[in-house]
Specification:
about 325 residues; alpha+beta; 15 strands; 6 helices; homodimer; ten-stranded antiparallel beta sheet; HIT family, subunit A; about 25% helix
Chain lengths: ~325, ~325
């Protein structure tokens, strides 16, 4: 019989049932071939004029702006979700609230190479990418209009138009709903326990080890107890920290190496699936210093989500996280 | 520029932006051909022995149980998410909560005909289906172990193994997370306003009419102000009611006709997409009599959800609900 497991942060019950019929699909996913490009890749070196002017780039000190010879480059997104200029024009519409979609939507072009997954990245290149996230987080929070920042990376996403490795940095005037759920849960947990919910999880998983994939001096990788999705994987700092922007250099170097190893493990177990990787960090305007814990969530795209999830969000996961963690750890 | 719109029930911001590049995909979706059956359909008449014994069926009074000649038939699901027998065995696991996945997972076999969408159903047949939902809701609430009931219907779902028209009735020992979010929002709204949030929405939409698709004596169909998905459509009773199980016979007949018309409109606008239809109704054990409003949510599967949604739940919808409502209303 399946189990119902409750996520202690969000108070969310998830069905974990290895006897579900979609189990086999969730255990292996073939990589999609990259879709054909309909023209030159706008993110490749030499095509810098195809993107909006760069915000920042890493390269030789002699390099000129918007020229080639960069290692990492940040530009506004070609099709931004939200725009940086203008007024919010906050207004009611009947009983509803509306504002203009202001925000920063930047892309981090992570490498000059057109096809490269994080599992294949040189560690130093991943370090540069993480440093770029930190830098953008520290810079964008200076703009008082923005309340939160998320980083979204689609690793080898077949649905994406662009296969050139890149990620999205979004600074938003609101807190995305999925982060707000977490923040609320963490605040409630802290009010009851005066401890960080994620710290409790980390403590337990390091002792029990059944869902721990790997740990380093600074981080732990684990399959969460109430995983919504097959092979859902969290990467958390061992020591309590709410703000990714304040990560130290030693931790960052360790993180780059661990992210690469984690993506290699996911790739070996599942055959290089598309993954969505999201950086969860505390909002700028109400820092949850004590009760929130920044982390990376990695969700491989395996089987289609069971239909019960839509709207009602009844999550059903055919791969117990203990099994996912063991399969991943075997690949080390 | 896109707009940020806040759902007043869930306090959830959604990006509505008709200039998104995935707009065209979201405007038309070809119907998927039904996948080939690998054997006889277990839901077709004559194959009653292929399902678990029926719970209830509509048919002639002379009909014998588990024989053919039914018009609607309810059986336990062939691959249930949760089981009806056994103990919860509620237990801690370290800092976590676990229980056995007990619950009722039934399927309503909605017609003897193998391929038929709700848009094609005779109205009387849809009435029988809705009466069946009501009956199961009233029956299953007598089992004190279950806290909530949802009905999930995948209309012409290409991902499903079974194309024979059927829906899932789930009575659960917990409240699905998507419903709990709504209940919490409604409770907070009521605490502030002493009015039902959905009643406020209905009042406004009936006056402004820009997102109202159609209304009858008892119901209204509208495209919600902060639609998460293209052509997201809600069907709500005009008069405040929290519990679908208490729907009257006149309302039920009206609802059947309106559901059919709504599915016809969706089908004409989008070319018969797969749809997920979920019945949201108040939980059994803590009836939200004053602050919750039962309704049906219809979500057509058009373009893939923008990748920003995963985990962070940053919803981006390229079809403004005003436009969706107008396109649907034109098809009447």
């Amino acid at each position: 019989m399946g189990e119902l497991r409750r996520d202690p942060v969000r108070n969310r019950w998830v069905v974990i049932d290895p006897e579900r019929p979609d189990r086999e699909a969730a255990l292996k996913v073939e990589a999609q071939p990259p879709p054909p490009l309909s023209g030159p890749c706008p993110l490749c070196p030499g095509n810098e004029a195809m993107t909006p002017p760069e915000i920042i780039a890493f390269g030789e000190s002699s390099r000129q702006r918007n020229q080639t010879d960069w290692s990492v480059r940040v530009t506004p997104d070609l099709q931004p979700l939200c725009r940086i200029e203008g007024d919010f024009d906050r207004r009611p519409e009947g009983p509803f609230d509306v504002m203009n979609a202001l925000g920063a939507h930047e892309i981090v072009i992570e490498s000059p190479q057109h096809l490269l997954t994080w599992a294949e990245f040189p560690e130093q290149q991943l370090e540069r990418v993480l440093r770029t996230y930190r830098m953008r987080s520290l810079d964008l929070r200076l703009d008082g209009r923005f309340r939160s920042l998320i980083v979204v990376k689609n690793n080898a996403d077949a649905a994406g138009i662009l296969r050139h490795p890149h990620s999205h940095v979004l600074a938003l005037p609101f807190i995305p709903y999925g982060i707000e759920e977490e923040l609320r849960g963490c605040r409630e947990f802290y009010a009851r326990k005066e401890r960080c919910a994620f710290c409790d999880i980390i403590l337990h998983e390091r002792v029990s080890r059944v869902r721990r994939v790997v740990e380093t001096d600074f981080f732990v990788v684990l399959a969460p107890f109430a995983s919504r999705f097959p092979f859902e994987t969290w990467l958390l700092p061992l020591r309590h920290a709410s703000d990714f922007g304040k990560i130290g250099e030693k931790e960052l170097v360790d993180l780059a190496s661990l992210v690469k190893r984690t993506m290699q493990m996911v790739g070996k177990v599942l055959g290089n699936p598309s993954c969505t990787i999201v950086l969860h960090s505390t909002p700028f305007d109400e820092p949850h210093t004590h009760d929130y814990h920044w982390h990376l969530e990695i969700i491989p795209k395996t089987a289609p989500v069971a239909a019960f999830g839509w709207g009602a969000r009844l999550f059903v996961n055919p791969i117990p996280p203990e099994e996912a963690a063991a399969l991943m750890a075997q690949q080390m």
